[in-house]
């Protein structure tokens, strides 16, 4: 990857295509994990948190949904009981699934949390709201992502309501710690801000914030792209390779649409047998803009920046 100034693109930048996958490729906002018992699971927007499973990270099967039916409290935030953008993690002997329940264009939103002993669909116990936002808030409680740092548990989240935020969680309940302040991590200078879907990874002494910028969910007209910044503290401040703060519109361009792979975003990162992988969706320009699973290995440059290969 060639480091670019924020907001710029170059015609000579070549982005790698995703790893070929087969089977059930349709997905949106994927979170992927290699299970401790072997094999892989991916959860996503669509259905009652749509599920895919794989034995080899190449062929993916439809595995139904995380839940058989929506928990009743979802309907206070979404008339259809349709959750968004899940995040899968493992700690304290359990798999943890976070997800958002909201409606398009509102920040009357909530992030829920569930646990499972196996991480597989059909085994989840929902524990209700972990965090919420209301129309009077300047943030939007969607797109959760969990990270541990210095013995504490954190959740980044957010969208067009002034960008990416973070709140500390109670490690016992998995819900927002009582009285925890909301930290601001990234935004853009002007409304509608158009930065969302955060994911934070620790590599070496740095925390790296990945986020999706620009327009989602418009098929072949989507302009989603993934940018990244880093900080020495999980709560920031995050800057790009030029030193520009992500709170001032900074962010190095990691992956953008190219060829048939339009609107790359909704990303997460997972670790698999010694390697880091970037999971995301793209809109397939050769299949009427259908959202599909993108997987690329992540490497790290000598200066400590991620590179897609």
Features:
mainly beta, 4-stranded antiparallel β-sheet, disordered N terminus, 5-stranded mixed β-sheet, 309 residues
What does this structure look like?
- By secondary structure, the protein is an all-beta fold.
- 0% of the residues lie in helices and 47% in strands.
- The chain contains no helices and 21 strands.
- The chain has strands at 22-23, 31-34, 40-44, 50-54, 59-65, 83-91, 94-101, 109-116, 125-133, 145-149, 152-159, 163-169, 182-186, 195-203, 206-213, 225-231, 252-255, 261-272, 275-284, 290-300, 306-308.
- The strands form 5 sheets. Strands 1-5-4-3-2 form a 5-stranded mixed sheet, with no helix packed on it. Strands 6-7-8-9 form a 4-stranded antiparallel sheet, with no helix packed on it. Strands 10-11-12-13 form a 4-stranded antiparallel sheet, with no helix packed on it.
- A hairpin with a 5-residue loop joins β19 and β20.
- It is globular.
- The chain starts with 21 loop residues before the first strand and ends with a strand.
List the helices and strands and how they pair.
Layout: E1 22-23, E2 31-34, E3 40-44, E4 50-54, E5 59-65, E6 83-91, E7 94-101, E8 109-116, E9 125-133, E10 145-149, E11 152-159, E12 163-169, E13 182-186, E14 195-203, E15 206-213, E16 225-231, E17 252-255, E18 261-272, E19 275-284, E20 290-300, E21 306-308
């Amino acid at each position: 990857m060639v480091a670019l100034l924020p907001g710029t693109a170059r015609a000579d930048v070549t982005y790698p295509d995703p790893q070929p996958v087969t089977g059930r490729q349709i997905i949106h906002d994927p979170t992927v994990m290699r299970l401790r018992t072997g094999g892989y699971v991916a959860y996503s927007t669509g259905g009652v948190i749509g599920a895919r499973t794989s034995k080899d990270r190449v062929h993916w099967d439809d595995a139904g949904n995380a839940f058989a039916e929506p928990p009743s409290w979802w309907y206070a935030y979404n008339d259809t009981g349709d959750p968004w953008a899940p995040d899968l993690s493992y700690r304290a002997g359990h798999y943890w699934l976070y997800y958002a329940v909201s409606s398009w264009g509102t920040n009357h939103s909530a992030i829920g949390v569930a646990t499972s002993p196996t991480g597989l669909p059909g085994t989840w116990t929902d524990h209700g709201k972990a965090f919420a936002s209301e129309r009077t808030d300047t943030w939007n409680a969607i797109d959760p992502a969990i990270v541990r740092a210095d013995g504490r548990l954190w959740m980044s989240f957010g969208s067009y309501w002034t960008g990416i935020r973070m709140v500390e969680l109670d490690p016992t309940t998995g819900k927002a710690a009582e009285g925890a302040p909301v930290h601001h991590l990234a935004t853009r200078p002007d409304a509608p801000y158009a930065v969302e879907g955060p994911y934070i990874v620790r590599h070496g002494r740095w925390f790296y914030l990945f986020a999706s910028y620009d327009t989602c969910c418009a098929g072949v007209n989507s302009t989603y792209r993934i940018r990244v910044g880093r900080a020495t503290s999980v709560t920031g401040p995050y800057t790009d390779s030029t030193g520009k703060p992500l709170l001032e519109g900074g962010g190095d361009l990691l992956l953008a649409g190219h060829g048939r792979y339009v609107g790359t975003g909704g990303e997460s990162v997972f670790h698999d047998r010694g390697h880091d992988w970037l999971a995301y969706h793209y809109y397939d320009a050769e299949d009427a803009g259908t959202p599909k699973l993108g997987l690329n290995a992540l490497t790290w440059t000598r200066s400590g920046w991620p590179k897609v290969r």
